[in-house]
Amino acid sequence: MRAMTKINKKGDDAYLDRLLSYFQSKFNEKIKQFVPIRKKVFYVKTRKNTYIIKGYRSNKKLKLQETFTTTLKNEGFSKTYQFVHPAKEALFFEGTHYGVIEYLEPHKTSFSYYTKENISEGLKLLEEFHKVTATFETRYRILIPKGDIFGKWQERSAIFINNLPVLENFINPTILTELLDWAKWSLDGIKTNSRFFEKEPFVILHGDVAHHNFLREVSGTLHLIDFDLIQIGPNVLDYLQYANRILPYLDWSFEQLAEFEPMQKFLQEKAFLYALAYPSDIFREWNRLIRENLHARPSKTKYVMELTMNQFFLRKEFFNHLQKMV
Q1: Homologous superfamily, domain 12-102
Q2: For residue 12, what pLDDT band results from cuts at 50, 70 and 90?
Q3: The CATH number of the domain covering residues in 116-325
Q4: pTM surpassing 0.85?
Q5: Which side of the chain, N or C, has fewer Cβ within a 10 Å radius?
Q6: What residue stretches are annotated with the Aminoglycoside phosphotransferase domain (predicted)?
Q7: Average pLDDT in the chain
Q8: What ranges make up the beta strands (E) of the chain?
């Protein structure tokens, strides 16, 4: 069967046909459907089963993911996937190592941060994840990096500043100045209060709590997926990122953020308040667009422009509130 593809760039069909042929030769089951989901991630249906195949740059990264998800299951966290082995041997094709993951059939209504019910459910699942990983994080300290929010965001700011000659063509200079002021104020506060983000007890952090890494299965059970960015550190680092992710859906309201019980204790900490001010999403998305040379394409910049401009004044009010609190 010819590879089913949503990618229309020259050469992709030939590559996908070669890749399908390779998988076909290695699988113990006849592949009936083969659909790219995103780069190096594929939906595969055989006569009896359905899988997700995901590519990794190294065998070490693949084995870490296999081991980690197995440990999660063994230690009692069942709300995620497992790697399976339906192939005759390890899958390696044109420089990429591939792992095969059990398919979790998604619910007709996907998870998002549009409702407070979903936000609360995601927080509860994250809390369960941390509770389990706290029991075995010491086993992974030599395998995965330690979370470093200051270093990560300092580098992100440096790249954003380096991109200013391009950014000035898109963003009002006054807004650019304010964004950089927020970032500096935030980083200064994080540095001064750095011990807060280094305190044990540690857990294994998910590291990417975007809504698409929460998957609601057809049964209604919410699962946590994609552990490519796991790190060691205090759970506050995941909760900080979660707060950054949900605030745009809460109209940058401090009061609404404080409605969620797991956030309440952190909102009493100066270090957390300083960190909430950092415009992480705006810097991340602009840096990515410019790095991938996509900033000249209006279809690609539309979302980031909306992210930067549409809620700017709500974010400014939020920032002013944080300043008064600390």
Answers
A1: Phosphorylase Kinase; domain 1 (3.30.200.20)
A2: confident
A3: 3.90.1200.10
A4: yes
A5: N
A6: 41-243
A7: 95
A8: 31-38, 41-46, 50-56, 83-84, 91-93, 96-102, 203-205, 214-216, 222-224, 231-233
